[in-house]
Amino acid sequence: MYAAEVTDHARRGESARDELVARLVAEGMIVSPEVEAAFRTVPRHAFVPAGTPLDVVYAVDRSVITKTDEHGAHLSSVSATYIQARMIEQAKVRPGMRVLEIGSGGYNAALLAEVVGPDGDVVSVDIDADITDRAAELLEAAGYGGRVRVVQADAARGVPDAGVFDAIIVTVGMWDIPPALLDHLSPAGVIVVPLRMNGVTRTIAFRRDGDHLVSTSTELAGFVPVQGDDARPERIFRLPDARGHAVSLRFDVGVPDDVHALDGVLGTERSEAWSGVFVGGSEPFADLHLWMAGFLPGFCLLATDEGTELKAESNWLPFAVVYADSFAYFALRRIGEESRYELGARAYGRHGRDAAAAMTGQMQAWDQYARGGLAPTFAYWPNDGGPGDLSGVVAELEKTHGLLTISWPSAA
What pTM was computed for the model? Predict the structure, then answer.
């Protein structure tokens, strides 16, 4: 760029940044003056690939991919601004704190450096040397080289010579919480982690409560998966149809004992069941997905190839359940001319009706016990401990290093 173009780009970037912050504040995503000041100060466009349009850079809900593997899978990104704001707020980061960031990119670390100020300390860690090198270079160029320490390490094994922190913010999707990471958390500290639960992710802020962790807030978001010792790749099973296209079932846990029982399932007659549970067109029901992840055996995520019968449909959501030689998937049907929908399931296989009934049964249970009540509470119990008496309806998810419980207190 010529000098005039650089100046114009910077001016437009500053204007876009101000508009973004105004929206984040107006929508309650930023609530503290320190976080607002950080977002107004740090130039996000300095941390994304050159040529990224400013309307993408400064969008509320657009992430920007910064590295992919040879298959096109996302390895690193600058997360959407709304979730970066929310995670810093969830962690209650304030001036003078020590903060550990897991998953480097540069921009989020610069925001943290602004919030903690000159008396604070920010350490940013990533397993990938390419990513830490890039983050360190960008931070230096933006004036944060002396305010953020960038470390290349697998945080699941601990961060060398790092000590303890008032807040830990994990910016990669994790299936579990490594014990070495908790060793870095101060007794009164907060860890914010995007935790995957049978394919459903929530960004959860945890505080210590005796021998376990208890959630203080949650946000809905998705992240690129963690790499290294604590990575847990999904098991993916492709079910081809007669034309060579496929439907994919993606499992975190609960992989069927005999997936070959599903061979040819898309060639069977489709069945369906409807729950009698209705939602408005703009009514959120993401907690239902979490409910099914906790209580529905065989729950998994669903993806479809172009050309499949499912891909041509518009009224389904990417969740499924496997039942023996059959599977059912989450469906909606519009009721009359109203913006109102009934929740249900469509299914393939000899036991498709049973699969659909299992899914709609959990829709009815959610409607009866959890809908419209208080948000669920999460607790994490390391392997050397265990849950005490839990009230309400509680889902228990076994992890490698501990047990996660999800409690719906309104059901008590």
Answer: 0.91
